[in-house]
Specification:
alpha/beta, Rossmann fold, 3-stranded mixed β-sheet, 10 strands, about 50% helix, about 10% strand
Protein backbone atom coordinates (compact mmCIF):
# COMPACT_ATOMS: atom_id res chain seq x y z
CA UNK A 1 0.00 0.00 0.00
CA UNK A 2 1.31 3.42 -0.95
CA UNK A 3 1.71 6.14 1.68
CA UNK A 4 3.21 9.59 1.33
CA UNK A 5 5.96 9.16 3.90
CA UNK A 6 7.15 5.97 2.17
CA UNK A 7 6.78 7.26 -1.39
CA UNK A 8 8.66 10.49 -0.63
CA UNK A 9 11.32 9.19 1.74
CA UNK A 10 14.61 11.03 0.97
CA UNK A 11 17.13 9.02 -1.04
CA UNK A 12 20.11 11.34 -0.63
CA UNK A 13 21.36 13.99 1.79
CA UNK A 14 19.99 16.97 -0.16
CA UNK A 15 16.43 15.62 0.11
CA UNK A 16 16.56 15.52 3.92
CA UNK A 17 14.85 18.58 5.45
CA UNK A 18 16.27 19.79 8.74
CA UNK A 19 19.13 18.25 10.78
CA UNK A 20 21.72 20.29 8.88
CA UNK A 21 24.13 20.11 11.82
CA UNK A 22 24.19 16.33 11.41
CA UNK A 23 24.17 16.16 7.61
CA UNK A 24 27.25 18.36 7.25
CA UNK A 25 29.31 16.21 9.62
CA UNK A 26 28.29 12.93 7.99
CA UNK A 27 28.91 14.23 4.48
CA UNK A 28 32.38 15.47 5.41
CA UNK A 29 33.31 12.09 6.90
CA UNK A 30 32.09 10.23 3.81
CA UNK A 31 33.78 12.65 1.39
CA UNK A 32 37.06 12.25 3.29
CA UNK A 33 36.67 8.43 3.31
CA UNK A 34 36.97 8.41 7.10
CA UNK A 35 33.68 7.08 8.45
CA UNK A 36 33.44 6.04 12.09
CA UNK A 37 32.88 2.42 13.05
CA UNK A 38 29.75 3.17 15.14
CA UNK A 39 27.15 5.94 15.19
CA UNK A 40 24.40 6.69 17.70
CA UNK A 41 21.40 8.63 16.36
CA UNK A 42 19.13 9.82 19.18
CA UNK A 43 16.17 12.17 19.23
CA UNK A 44 12.36 12.34 18.96
CA UNK A 45 10.40 10.07 16.69
CA UNK A 46 9.81 10.85 13.01
CA UNK A 47 12.66 13.34 12.59
CA UNK A 48 14.86 11.38 10.15
CA UNK A 49 17.04 8.97 12.16
CA UNK A 50 16.28 5.85 10.09
CA UNK A 51 16.18 7.85 6.86
CA UNK A 52 19.66 9.29 7.38
CA UNK A 53 20.91 5.83 8.36
CA UNK A 54 19.78 4.40 5.02
CA UNK A 55 21.15 7.35 3.05
CA UNK A 56 24.49 6.97 4.80
CA UNK A 57 24.58 3.22 4.11
CA UNK A 58 23.86 3.95 0.47
CA UNK A 59 26.57 6.65 0.27
CA UNK A 60 29.18 4.37 1.89
CA UNK A 61 28.52 1.58 -0.65
CA UNK A 62 27.78 3.65 -3.79
CA UNK A 63 29.81 2.28 -6.71
CA UNK A 64 29.79 5.51 -8.74
CA UNK A 65 30.25 8.11 -6.02
CA UNK A 66 32.88 10.62 -7.05
CA UNK A 67 35.99 11.17 -4.94
CA UNK A 68 35.50 13.97 -2.45
CA UNK A 69 31.71 13.72 -2.83
CA UNK A 70 29.17 12.40 -0.35
CA UNK A 71 25.95 12.06 -2.32
CA UNK A 72 25.04 8.57 -3.63
CA UNK A 73 24.28 8.27 -7.31
CA UNK A 74 21.02 6.27 -6.84
CA UNK A 75 21.71 4.57 -10.19
CA UNK A 76 24.29 1.88 -9.54
CA UNK A 77 23.37 -1.68 -8.58
CA UNK A 78 24.26 -1.11 -4.93
CA UNK A 79 22.12 2.03 -4.60
CA UNK A 80 19.16 0.42 -6.36
CA UNK A 81 19.30 -2.71 -4.20
CA UNK A 82 19.49 -0.64 -1.00
CA UNK A 83 16.55 1.51 -2.12
CA UNK A 84 14.54 -1.62 -2.82
CA UNK A 85 15.55 -3.14 0.54
CA UNK A 86 17.16 -6.19 -1.09
CA UNK A 87 20.82 -5.62 -0.30
CA UNK A 88 22.08 -8.43 1.94
CA UNK A 89 24.92 -6.32 3.35
CA UNK A 90 22.55 -3.69 4.80
CA UNK A 91 20.99 -5.35 7.84
CA UNK A 92 18.16 -3.56 9.64
CA UNK A 93 17.24 -4.96 13.05
CA UNK A 94 14.27 -3.95 15.17
CA UNK A 95 15.62 -4.15 18.72
CA UNK A 96 12.08 -3.92 20.11
CA UNK A 97 11.37 -7.37 18.64
CA UNK A 98 14.84 -8.81 19.23
CA UNK A 99 15.69 -7.86 22.78
CA UNK A 100 17.53 -10.98 23.95
CA UNK A 101 21.20 -11.80 23.99
CA UNK A 102 20.68 -14.78 21.65
CA UNK A 103 19.37 -12.49 18.89
CA UNK A 104 22.41 -10.27 19.26
CA UNK A 105 24.77 -13.23 18.94
CA UNK A 106 22.96 -14.75 15.96
CA UNK A 107 21.93 -11.66 14.01
CA UNK A 108 24.80 -9.28 14.74
CA UNK A 109 27.92 -10.93 16.08
CA UNK A 110 27.74 -13.96 13.76
CA UNK A 111 26.91 -11.93 10.64
CA UNK A 112 29.59 -9.33 11.35
CA UNK A 113 32.25 -12.03 10.93
CA UNK A 114 31.18 -12.60 7.31
CA UNK A 115 32.70 -10.30 4.71
CA UNK A 116 30.26 -8.32 2.51
CA UNK A 117 28.92 -10.24 -0.46
CA UNK A 118 28.87 -7.34 -2.92
CA UNK A 119 29.10 -4.06 -1.03
CA UNK A 120 32.14 -2.32 0.42
CA UNK A 121 30.71 -2.06 3.94
CA UNK A 122 28.38 -4.27 5.93
CA UNK A 123 26.08 -1.80 7.73
CA UNK A 124 23.99 -2.76 10.77
CA UNK A 125 21.08 -0.38 11.43
CA UNK A 126 19.65 -1.22 14.88
CA UNK A 127 16.40 0.66 15.46
CA UNK A 128 15.03 1.32 18.98
CA UNK A 129 18.30 0.08 20.42
CA UNK A 130 17.28 1.11 23.95
CA UNK A 131 14.93 -1.91 24.02
CA UNK A 132 17.83 -4.38 24.22
CA UNK A 133 18.30 -6.18 27.52
CA UNK A 134 21.35 -5.59 29.73
CA UNK A 135 22.85 -8.92 28.72
CA UNK A 136 22.31 -8.08 25.05
CA UNK A 137 24.09 -4.75 25.50
CA UNK A 138 26.97 -6.50 27.23
CA UNK A 139 27.29 -8.97 24.36
CA UNK A 140 27.26 -6.06 21.92
CA UNK A 141 29.98 -4.07 23.65
CA UNK A 142 33.06 -5.86 22.29
CA UNK A 143 31.94 -6.03 18.67
CA UNK A 144 30.93 -2.33 18.71
CA UNK A 145 34.24 -1.29 20.23
CA UNK A 146 36.44 -3.19 17.76
CA UNK A 147 34.40 -4.34 14.75
CA UNK A 148 35.98 -5.63 11.53
CA UNK A 149 37.14 -2.88 9.19
CA UNK A 150 34.23 -3.52 6.82
CA UNK A 151 31.47 -3.20 9.50
CA UNK A 152 29.64 0.02 10.43
CA UNK A 153 27.04 0.17 13.20
CA UNK A 154 24.25 2.79 13.26
CA UNK A 155 22.19 2.68 16.46
CA UNK A 156 18.91 4.62 16.55
CA UNK A 157 16.94 5.42 19.71
CA UNK A 158 14.26 7.75 21.01
CA UNK A 159 15.24 7.21 24.66
CA UNK A 160 18.93 7.85 25.00
CA UNK A 161 18.76 7.68 28.81
CA UNK A 162 18.12 3.93 28.56
CA UNK A 163 21.28 3.24 26.59
CA UNK A 164 24.24 2.27 28.83
CA UNK A 165 27.07 4.75 29.01
CA UNK A 166 29.52 2.02 27.95
CA UNK A 167 27.71 1.80 24.60
CA UNK A 168 27.41 5.58 24.16
CA UNK A 169 31.14 6.04 24.73
CA UNK A 170 31.95 3.68 21.85
CA UNK A 171 29.85 5.61 19.30
CA UNK A 172 29.77 8.99 17.60
CA UNK A 173 26.62 10.52 19.05
CA UNK A 174 24.29 12.78 17.03
CA UNK A 175 21.28 14.45 18.64
CA UNK A 176 18.37 14.99 16.25
CA UNK A 177 15.96 17.89 16.77
CA UNK A 178 12.34 18.37 15.88
CA UNK A 179 11.87 19.81 12.44
CA UNK A 180 10.71 23.43 12.21
CA UNK A 181 7.37 24.46 10.77
CA UNK A 182 8.99 26.21 7.81
CA UNK A 183 11.04 23.13 6.87
CA UNK A 184 7.99 20.87 7.14
CA UNK A 185 5.99 23.28 4.97
CA UNK A 186 8.78 23.18 2.37
CA UNK A 187 8.64 19.38 2.26
CA UNK A 188 4.83 19.38 2.05
CA UNK A 189 4.98 21.81 -0.88
CA UNK A 190 7.32 19.43 -2.72
CA UNK A 191 4.89 16.56 -2.15
CA UNK A 192 1.85 18.61 -3.21
CA UNK A 193 3.62 19.71 -6.40
CA UNK A 194 4.59 16.12 -7.20
CA UNK A 195 0.99 14.99 -6.64
CA UNK A 196 -0.27 17.95 -8.74
CA UNK A 197 -2.61 19.13 -5.98
CA UNK A 198 -2.91 22.80 -5.02
CA UNK A 199 -3.07 23.42 -1.27
CA UNK A 200 -3.32 26.81 0.41
CA UNK A 201 -0.28 27.86 2.43
CA UNK A 202 -2.42 28.35 5.54
CA UNK A 203 -3.46 24.68 5.32
CA UNK A 204 0.15 23.51 5.03
CA UNK A 205 1.16 25.67 8.02
CA UNK A 206 -1.72 24.25 10.05
CA UNK A 207 -0.61 20.71 9.16
CA UNK A 208 2.99 21.51 10.12
CA UNK A 209 1.97 23.05 13.47
CA UNK A 210 -0.25 20.09 14.28
CA UNK A 211 2.59 17.64 13.60
CA UNK A 212 4.65 19.09 16.45
CA UNK A 213 7.93 18.85 14.52
CA UNK A 214 7.43 15.21 13.43
CA UNK A 215 7.63 15.04 9.63
CA UNK A 216 6.03 11.61 9.30
CA UNK A 217 2.94 12.85 11.19
CA UNK A 218 2.69 15.84 8.87
CA UNK A 219 2.93 13.64 5.76
CA UNK A 220 0.27 11.28 7.11
CA UNK A 221 -2.09 14.18 7.81
CA UNK A 222 -1.46 15.64 4.37
CA UNK A 223 -2.40 12.26 2.89
CA UNK A 224 -5.77 12.49 4.66
CA UNK A 225 -6.33 15.94 3.15
CA UNK A 226 -5.46 14.62 -0.31
CA UNK A 227 -8.15 11.96 0.16
CA UNK A 228 -10.78 14.71 -0.07
CA UNK A 229 -10.37 14.20 -3.80
CA UNK A 230 -10.15 17.79 -5.05
CA UNK A 231 -7.23 19.15 -7.03
CA UNK A 232 -7.44 22.44 -5.13
CA UNK A 233 -7.87 22.30 -1.36
CA UNK A 234 -8.94 25.35 0.60
CA UNK A 235 -8.86 26.04 4.32
CA UNK A 236 -12.61 25.39 4.62
CA UNK A 237 -12.26 21.94 3.07
CA UNK A 238 -9.18 21.09 5.16
CA UNK A 239 -11.10 21.81 8.38
CA UNK A 240 -13.00 18.57 7.74
CA UNK A 241 -9.75 16.71 8.48
CA UNK A 242 -7.59 19.10 10.47
CA UNK A 243 -8.07 19.43 14.22
CA UNK A 244 -9.30 22.95 14.89
CA UNK A 245 -6.59 25.30 16.08
CA UNK A 246 -7.39 28.65 17.65
CA UNK A 247 -4.09 30.45 17.16
CA UNK A 248 -5.71 33.20 15.09
CA UNK A 249 -8.37 33.76 17.74
CA UNK A 250 -5.70 33.80 20.47
CA UNK A 251 -3.76 36.49 18.61
CA UNK A 252 -6.98 38.46 18.10
CA UNK A 253 -7.63 38.28 21.85
CA UNK A 254 -4.17 39.73 22.57
CA UNK A 255 -4.92 42.45 20.02
CA UNK A 256 -8.15 43.41 21.82
CA UNK A 257 -6.43 43.39 25.20
CA UNK A 258 -3.67 45.64 23.92
CA UNK A 259 -6.31 48.08 22.63
CA UNK A 260 -8.35 47.83 25.88
CA UNK A 261 -11.39 46.72 23.85
CA UNK A 262 -13.13 44.55 26.45
CA UNK A 263 -16.39 44.27 24.49
CA UNK A 264 -14.81 42.62 21.45
CA UNK A 265 -12.63 40.39 23.62
CA UNK A 266 -15.62 39.13 25.62
CA UNK A 267 -17.55 38.61 22.39
CA UNK A 268 -14.70 36.53 20.98
CA UNK A 269 -14.64 34.31 24.10
CA UNK A 270 -18.39 33.71 23.96
CA UNK A 271 -18.22 32.97 20.25
CA UNK A 272 -15.61 30.28 20.93
CA UNK A 273 -17.72 28.86 23.75
CA UNK A 274 -20.80 28.69 21.51
CA UNK A 275 -18.71 26.86 18.89
CA UNK A 276 -17.81 24.16 21.40
CA UNK A 277 -14.15 25.16 21.80
CA UNK A 278 -12.48 23.90 24.97
CA UNK A 279 -11.74 27.17 26.76
CA UNK A 280 -9.04 25.62 28.92
CA UNK A 281 -7.19 24.51 25.79
CA UNK A 282 -7.70 27.95 24.28
CA UNK A 283 -6.27 29.60 27.41
CA UNK A 284 -3.25 27.34 27.06
CA UNK A 285 -2.74 28.61 23.50
CA UNK A 286 -2.88 32.21 24.72
CA UNK A 287 -0.28 31.44 27.41
CA UNK A 288 1.96 29.74 24.82
CA UNK A 289 1.78 32.84 22.62
CA UNK A 290 2.65 35.11 25.55
CA UNK A 291 5.61 32.87 26.36
CA UNK A 292 6.72 33.16 22.75
CA UNK A 293 6.50 36.96 22.99
CA UNK A 294 8.51 36.96 26.21
CA UNK A 295 11.25 34.75 24.74
CA UNK A 296 11.37 36.86 21.60
CA UNK A 297 11.84 40.03 23.65
CA UNK A 298 14.66 38.38 25.58
CA UNK A 299 16.40 37.07 22.47
CA UNK A 300 15.10 36.10 19.01
CA UNK A 301 17.56 33.19 19.00
CA UNK A 302 16.14 31.96 22.31
CA UNK A 303 12.61 32.12 20.92
CA UNK A 304 13.68 30.12 17.88
CA UNK A 305 15.15 27.33 20.02
CA UNK A 306 12.63 27.15 22.86
CA UNK A 307 9.45 28.80 21.65
CA UNK A 308 6.67 27.81 19.32
CA UNK A 309 7.20 27.66 15.59
CA UNK A 310 4.04 29.34 14.35
CA UNK A 311 4.84 29.69 10.69
CA UNK A 312 5.52 32.83 8.70
CA UNK A 313 1.99 34.28 8.54
CA UNK A 314 1.18 33.84 12.22
CA UNK A 315 4.62 35.07 13.31
CA UNK A 316 4.12 38.26 11.31
CA UNK A 317 0.62 38.81 12.70
CA UNK A 318 1.75 38.19 16.28
CA UNK A 319 4.68 40.59 16.00
CA UNK A 320 2.32 43.33 14.76
CA UNK A 321 -0.13 42.78 17.63
CA UNK A 322 2.40 42.75 20.47
CA UNK A 323 4.65 45.50 19.15
CA UNK A 324 3.07 47.96 21.62
CA UNK A 325 3.17 45.68 24.67
CA UNK A 326 5.81 46.30 27.31
CA UNK A 327 7.25 43.99 29.93
CA UNK A 328 4.67 44.91 32.64
CA UNK A 329 1.77 44.09 30.34
CA UNK A 330 3.30 40.80 29.20
CA UNK A 331 3.90 39.73 32.81
CA UNK A 332 0.41 40.83 33.87
CA UNK A 333 -1.34 39.08 30.95
CA UNK A 334 0.61 35.85 31.46
CA UNK A 335 0.03 35.74 35.20
CA UNK A 336 -3.69 36.47 34.89
CA UNK A 337 -4.29 33.78 32.26
CA UNK A 338 -2.34 31.27 34.34
CA UNK A 339 -4.79 32.03 37.14
CA UNK A 340 -7.65 31.40 34.71
CA UNK A 341 -6.40 27.88 34.03
CA UNK A 342 -6.70 27.08 37.75
CA UNK A 343 -10.02 28.92 38.14
CA UNK A 344 -11.64 27.14 35.21
CA UNK A 345 -12.01 23.74 36.91
CA UNK A 346 -15.77 23.40 37.28
CA UNK A 347 -17.43 26.82 37.00
CA UNK A 348 -21.15 27.18 36.42
CA UNK A 349 -20.35 29.43 33.44
CA UNK A 350 -17.22 28.13 31.70
CA UNK A 351 -16.33 31.43 30.06
CA UNK A 352 -16.75 33.51 33.26
CA UNK A 353 -13.10 33.23 34.49
CA UNK A 354 -11.85 34.46 31.12
CA UNK A 355 -14.43 37.26 31.03
CA UNK A 356 -13.34 38.44 34.48
CA UNK A 357 -9.70 38.36 33.41
CA UNK A 358 -10.48 40.42 30.29
CA UNK A 359 -12.37 43.08 32.24
CA UNK A 360 -9.61 43.32 34.86
CA UNK A 361 -6.86 43.64 32.25
CA UNK A 362 -8.72 46.14 30.10
CA UNK A 363 -9.79 48.42 32.96
CA UNK A 364 -6.60 48.15 35.01
CA UNK A 365 -8.18 46.28 37.91
CA UNK A 366 -5.44 43.66 38.18
CA UNK A 367 -2.47 44.26 40.47
CA UNK A 368 0.59 45.17 38.40
CA UNK A 369 3.61 42.88 38.63
CA UNK A 370 6.28 43.56 41.22
CA UNK A 371 9.09 45.73 39.93
CA UNK A 372 12.64 44.40 40.28
CA UNK A 373 14.56 45.25 43.44
CA UNK A 374 16.97 48.22 43.36
CA UNK A 375 20.48 47.58 42.10
CA UNK A 376 23.25 46.96 44.59
CA UNK A 377 24.85 50.30 43.74
CA UNK A 378 21.84 52.12 45.21
CA UNK A 379 22.07 50.33 48.57
CA UNK A 380 24.44 52.81 50.31
CA UNK A 381 22.15 55.72 49.44
CA UNK A 382 19.17 53.83 50.81
CA UNK A 383 21.01 53.11 54.06
CA UNK A 384 21.83 56.79 54.61
CA UNK A 385 18.24 57.85 53.93
CA UNK A 386 16.86 55.30 56.39
CA UNK A 387 19.34 55.89 59.22
CA UNK A 388 19.36 59.69 59.08
CA UNK A 389 15.84 60.28 60.56
CA UNK A 390 16.60 58.00 63.52
CA UNK A 391 19.84 59.80 64.30
CA UNK A 392 18.04 63.17 64.28
CA UNK A 393 15.28 61.92 66.58
CA UNK A 394 17.69 60.52 69.21
CA UNK A 395 20.94 62.46 69.08
CA UNK A 396 22.26 60.85 72.25
CA UNK A 397 21.72 57.32 71.08
CA UNK A 398 24.76 55.31 70.02
CA UNK A 399 25.59 54.90 66.36
CA UNK A 400 23.42 52.27 64.73
CA UNK A 401 24.95 49.33 62.92
CA UNK A 402 24.78 49.76 59.16
CA UNK A 403 22.10 47.24 58.32
CA UNK A 404 20.71 47.56 54.81
CA UNK A 405 17.00 48.23 54.70
CA UNK A 406 15.22 45.20 53.32
CA UNK A 407 13.66 46.13 49.94
CA UNK A 408 10.02 45.24 49.73
CA UNK A 409 7.54 44.84 46.94
CA UNK A 410 5.94 48.16 47.96
CA UNK A 411 9.17 50.14 47.61
CA UNK A 412 8.82 50.41 43.84
CA UNK A 413 5.06 50.84 43.52
CA UNK A 414 3.25 54.18 43.15
CA UNK A 415 2.08 55.67 46.48
CA UNK A 416 -1.62 55.25 45.79
CA UNK A 417 -1.11 51.54 45.14
CA UNK A 418 1.32 50.75 47.96
CA UNK A 419 1.76 53.08 50.93
CA UNK A 420 0.72 56.57 51.95
CA UNK A 421 4.03 58.35 51.49
CA UNK A 422 2.74 61.59 53.02
CA UNK A 423 2.11 60.06 56.45
CA UNK A 424 4.49 61.35 59.16
CA UNK A 425 3.82 60.49 62.81
CA UNK A 426 5.87 60.99 65.95
CA UNK A 427 6.56 58.57 68.74
CA UNK A 428 3.61 59.79 70.83
CA UNK A 429 1.03 58.88 68.18
CA UNK A 430 2.75 55.54 67.59
CA UNK A 431 2.92 54.59 71.26
CA UNK A 432 -0.77 55.39 71.66
CA UNK A 433 -1.74 52.67 69.20
CA UNK A 434 1.19 50.31 69.74
CA UNK A 435 -0.61 48.12 72.37
CA UNK A 436 -3.53 47.65 69.99
CA UNK A 437 -1.08 46.64 67.27
CA UNK A 438 0.61 44.06 69.53
CA UNK A 439 -2.71 42.53 70.55
CA UNK A 440 -3.89 42.37 66.95
CA UNK A 441 -0.74 40.78 65.58
CA UNK A 442 -0.74 38.20 68.38
CA UNK A 443 -3.80 36.61 66.73
CA UNK A 444 -1.74 35.90 63.60
CA UNK A 445 1.57 34.87 65.16
CA UNK A 446 1.99 34.42 68.91
CA UNK A 447 5.80 34.42 68.93
CA UNK A 448 5.93 37.49 66.68
CA UNK A 449 4.16 39.50 69.37
CA UNK A 450 6.99 38.73 71.80
CA UNK A 451 9.58 39.76 69.21
CA UNK A 452 7.86 43.11 68.59
CA UNK A 453 7.65 43.81 72.33
CA UNK A 454 11.44 43.96 72.28
CA UNK A 455 11.72 46.73 69.72
CA UNK A 456 11.43 50.50 69.92
CA UNK A 457 9.12 52.14 67.36
CA UNK A 458 10.70 55.52 66.65
CA UNK A 459 8.63 57.38 64.08
CA UNK A 460 6.69 57.08 60.83
CA UNK A 461 8.45 58.93 58.04
CA UNK A 462 6.95 59.03 54.54
CA UNK A 463 4.70 56.05 55.24
CA UNK A 464 7.46 53.89 56.77
CA UNK A 465 7.63 52.98 60.44
CA UNK A 466 11.21 52.84 61.77
CA UNK A 467 11.60 50.03 64.30
CA UNK A 468 14.89 49.56 66.18
CA UNK A 469 15.88 46.16 67.59
CA UNK A 470 18.62 45.34 70.05
CA UNK A 471 19.30 41.82 68.77
CA UNK A 472 20.00 40.71 65.26
CA UNK A 473 17.90 37.55 65.47
CA UNK A 474 14.86 39.72 66.26
CA UNK A 475 15.70 41.89 63.26
CA UNK A 476 16.07 38.89 60.96
CA UNK A 477 12.83 37.35 62.22
CA UNK A 478 10.77 40.45 61.40
CA UNK A 479 12.45 40.94 58.01
CA UNK A 480 11.50 37.45 56.85
CA UNK A 481 9.29 38.00 53.75
CA UNK A 482 6.38 35.93 55.09
CA UNK A 483 6.47 37.77 58.46
CA UNK A 484 6.95 41.20 56.86
CA UNK A 485 3.67 40.96 54.96
CA UNK A 486 1.82 40.19 58.20
CA UNK A 487 3.39 43.19 59.96
CA UNK A 488 2.67 45.54 57.04
CA UNK A 489 -0.98 44.51 56.83
CA UNK A 490 -1.59 44.91 60.57
CA UNK A 491 0.18 48.27 60.68
CA UNK A 492 -2.09 49.53 57.92
CA UNK A 493 -5.22 48.24 59.68
CA UNK A 494 -4.36 49.69 63.10
CA UNK A 495 -3.07 53.10 61.98
CA UNK A 496 -5.52 53.52 59.10
CA UNK A 497 -2.87 54.30 56.51
CA UNK A 498 -0.98 52.27 53.94
CA UNK A 499 2.20 51.64 55.94
CA UNK A 500 5.37 49.61 55.70
CA UNK A 501 8.36 49.43 58.03
CA UNK A 502 12.13 49.50 58.12
CA UNK A 503 14.02 47.43 60.72
CA UNK A 504 17.33 48.65 62.16
CA UNK A 505 19.71 47.33 64.86
CA UNK A 506 21.04 49.26 67.87
CA UNK A 507 23.01 47.04 70.26
CA UNK A 508 22.98 49.79 72.90
CA UNK A 509 19.21 50.05 72.96
CA UNK A 510 17.69 50.00 76.44
CA UNK A 511 14.46 48.02 76.31
CA UNK A 512 11.50 49.32 78.26
CA UNK A 513 8.58 47.37 79.65
CA UNK A 514 6.27 46.60 76.79
CA UNK A 515 2.79 48.18 76.90
CA UNK A 516 1.17 44.76 76.70
CA UNK A 517 2.87 43.40 79.84
CA UNK A 518 3.22 46.62 81.90
CA UNK A 519 1.39 46.71 85.22
CA UNK A 520 -2.09 48.18 85.09
CA UNK A 521 -1.74 50.56 88.06
CA UNK A 522 1.51 52.45 87.98
CA UNK A 523 0.32 55.90 89.18
CA UNK A 524 2.06 57.09 92.38
CA UNK A 525 -0.01 57.27 95.56
CA UNK A 526 -1.06 60.67 96.80
CA UNK A 527 0.74 61.93 99.89
CA UNK A 528 -2.46 62.54 101.86
CA UNK A 529 -4.04 59.21 100.99
CA UNK A 530 -4.83 57.14 104.07
CA UNK A 531 -2.70 54.09 104.57
CA UNK A 532 -4.76 50.97 105.02
CA UNK A 533 -3.74 47.48 105.85
CA UNK A 534 -3.26 45.30 102.84
CA UNK A 535 -6.11 43.00 102.03
CA UNK A 536 -5.42 39.26 102.10
CA UNK A 537 -4.65 37.88 98.68
CA UNK A 538 -7.35 36.13 96.73
CA UNK A 539 -6.97 32.37 96.37
CA UNK A 540 -6.01 32.69 92.74
CA UNK A 541 -3.31 35.20 93.61
CA UNK A 542 -1.50 32.88 96.03
CA UNK A 543 1.85 32.24 94.39
CA UNK A 544 2.92 28.72 93.79
CA UNK A 545 6.54 27.57 94.05
CA UNK A 546 6.70 27.63 90.27
CA UNK A 547 5.69 31.29 90.24
CA UNK A 548 8.29 32.06 92.90
CA UNK A 549 10.92 30.48 90.67
CA UNK A 550 9.86 32.70 87.82
CA UNK A 551 10.22 35.78 90.00
CA UNK A 552 13.72 34.72 90.92
CA UNK A 553 14.76 34.97 87.27
CA UNK A 554 17.07 37.86 86.44
CA UNK A 555 15.16 41.09 85.84
CA UNK A 556 17.36 42.52 83.13
CA UNK A 557 20.01 41.78 80.55
CA UNK A 558 20.13 39.35 77.63
CA UNK A 559 18.74 36.38 79.62
CA UNK A 560 15.60 38.29 80.64
CA UNK A 561 15.01 39.37 77.02
CA UNK A 562 15.35 35.78 75.81
CA UNK A 563 12.92 34.53 78.45
CA UNK A 564 10.40 37.22 77.54
CA UNK A 565 10.74 36.56 73.80
CA UNK A 566 10.37 32.79 73.84
CA UNK A 567 8.21 32.39 76.98
CA UNK A 568 10.83 30.40 78.95
CA UNK A 569 11.66 30.20 82.63
CA UNK A 570 14.70 29.68 84.83
CA UNK A 571 14.56 26.46 86.86
CA UNK A 572 16.57 26.56 90.12
Amino acid sequence: MSTLYRDYRPQNFSDVFGQNHIKVTLQNEIAAERPAHAYLFCGPRAVGKTTLSRVMAKALNCEKRQAGQAEPCNKCASCLSITAGKNLDIIEIDAASNTGVDNVRENIIAFSRLVPTSAKFKVFIIDEVHMLSISAFNALLKIIEEPPSYVVFILCTTEIQKVPGTVISRCERFDFKRISVNEIVSKLKVIAAAEKISVEDSVLEAVARHSGGHLRDAESLLGQIFSLGDKKITAEQAELVLPHYNSHEAINLLDYLGKKDAAKAVGLINGLADSGVNLKTFTGEVISLLRQVMLNKLSPELAGNLGLDLGESLEKRLSEVVSGLGWPQIFLFTRRFLECVNDNKSPMIPQLPLELAIVELCFGLSTPPVAPAPAASAAPTMRREMIAPVANNSPASPVLKKEAAVPTANDNLPPHQALDANVNLGSAEINAKWPEFLVKIKKFNHSLSFVLQNCEPREIKHGKLIMVFKYKFHHNRVCDPSIKSIVDNNLSEVFGYGLSFTALIDEGLELKASPETAPISEAPMKADAPVSAPEPPAPEEIKTPKALKKESAPSGGLMADLLKTFGGEVIN
